[in-house]
Amino acid sequence: MSTERAASAESTSPLVSVRDLRTWFELRQWGFLRVGSVRAVDGVSFDLGRGESVAFVGESGCGKSSLARTLLGLHRPTGGEVSFDGYRVQDLAGRDLQWYRASVGYVQQDPYGALPPFMDVRRILAEPLVVHGVTDRAERERRIRRALEEVRLGPGDAILDQFPHMLSGGQQQRVVIARALVLEPAMIIADEPVSMLDASVRVEILNLLRRIQSERSLTLAFITHDLSTVRHYADRIFVMYAGRIVEQAQVDELLEHPQHPYTQALLAAIADVDAANARRVRDVPAGEPPSLLHPPPGCRFHPRCPHAMAGTCDVRDPGMFEPRRDHLSACWLHER
Amino acid sequence: MAARPLLRVEDLQLHYRTRRGIARAVDGVSFDIRANEALVVLGESGCGKSSLAKALLRILPRNVHSFRGQVMLGDTDVMALGDEAFRRDVQWTRVAMVMQAAMNALNPVVRVGEQVAEPLRVHAGWSRERARERVVRTFEQVGVATDFLQRYPFELSGGMRQRVVLAMALVTEPELVILDEPTSALDVLTQASIMNVLKRIKREQGTSFMLITHDVATSSEIADRVALMYAGQMVEVADADAFFHEPAHPYSQMLMASVPRLRQQTEPAPIPGQPPELIEPPAGCRFADRCPRRFDRCAREPEPLRVGERHHVRCWLHAGSGGAGGGGRA
Questions:
Q1: Is residue B43 domain-resident?
Q2: CB of B175 within 8 Å of any CB in chain A?
Q3: pLDDT above 90 covers what percent of chain A?
Q4: How far apart are CA B283 and CA A166, in angstroms?
Q5: Helix, strand, coil: what percent of chain B each, to 5?
Q6: B117 lies in a domain?
Q7: Residue B316 distance to chain A (closest CA, Å)
Q8: Which domain holds residue B257?
Q9: What is the pLDDT of residues B101-150, one digit of tens each?
Q10: What ipTM does this complex have?
């Protein structure tokens, strides 16, 4: 069924299309009193092309993981819509929903937590296939071996009989990636895939993801707080702040010509290794990201922004402007 | 005459008993820290860097197998002190520590002002009134408004709690503050502002720091000196300039090449292989099986070799002449 669907869609249309997506979590006291809503994702729109590699960058609490989990169908959106391959995800049910789940792979942040400790690698990798109705044992074995080879854990049977605790952090993350691959998805969402790993292993895993992405022409969405890794592993960056996308552009363009004051502050706070750093005090905007329960009116960055314009930024929500070609920024400074 | 070090550590050893054998977490470590100097101890998880901090502050688990070496703090022979004397004269009064994830270990039912006063009251024996004034001043130093004194930890953000924990370490005005991964759970902007606080305190108070981290970029924010640990040993100890720009040990070089750079097009290169176990580590150089430059001599364990002013490397490539076959020179 999935092959028919893939063939039916236009290959030039975006794979994922998100419009004004909102994921709010209702907060209750004593289980019934409504206190308000945490606006984790609050009006986000973007398109992801087929075979494109993108990064959603932001600090903790900016909504990037809620966005990932909404795309995966783990949270029901409060408003707006997500389309995948031309289908509205909210409308999918039954077999169609299962097709969607098989089409989007998930790589978690903490590989050890993501792997069931009582299953060996063979069972871990067979499980999604069983769930998705691959009943032929030989076919399952073939797909498992292919995925293992892709993540460079095969060939050979040794790994198949191992349990997660017997593997190093890097190997565990490879198993998680293999599990995301066995169903041959069209897209992979990787939520902080290397933040729990040591520096020397990080690059290996990132290189692996990039290679798999280009070999399979997958759409790859990285969720990360670490701007310094994205240059080599993503084509396009979305910067998130307090539930919104504030800036988006191709990687080099964004890193070299950041437009939004938040992105500028973020970049200024990141050091490239240099002994002179120790003699320098960094410019850091005062304050902290706002509460998503009571976000400030207007631009959400205005209370911390060095360029905030009274009467504008604290009143009106900025739309998306295009200060440079194919480079969007949600900031009143770019209004023309 | 060179400045006398504030802290001098010679051949420190801390081994643990485990079910599978003896784990050599700290295995013959030597270094010094001068007054108003910041030493960053860099290393990947399991290299023994946190054990080193615990050994210095004598916060030891029960399964210690051996703990020996020489630790001089000024004129005090720390290893010769009994536990009671150590707790009274050194722990927290002269050497304080911010433990890993300490900001999540604050007592949830005690106001943060009182928690910060605790080291003064417990270790230095101050009265509540006398401690209060110092706590207020310390809060100002770390950039927490004094009306936060009356708050409980859950009312504070992560960045604020980290500042409170930092205040707890600074409140006794110790000569040396040991920080174990002080920013690793924090966001980029919060990290940068915590590092700014540390820099300012170092400049204004003349405090010495030993900062433990796995993050090379963070380490460069404060380091005067860098010590790189691998499998329980320090493989290179050097001035920050030398370490970041001309590292001498092959592991240091590969680690620097593995760091993604925001502002450079050079691709980070992974380090193949994995660090050895601390239980029965390989004989000879512990990095040898991952090292692209190993040669026959690496089968024997290298001692720290002096390659420059306050610059030591555990690597036979730097043995110079005198060794068998003359050795290789980097």
A1: yes
A2: no
A3: 68
A4: 24
A5: 35, 25, 40
A6: no
A7: 23
A8: 7-94+174-326
A9: 888 889 999 999 999 999 999 888 899 999 999 999 999 999 999 889 99
A10: 0.84
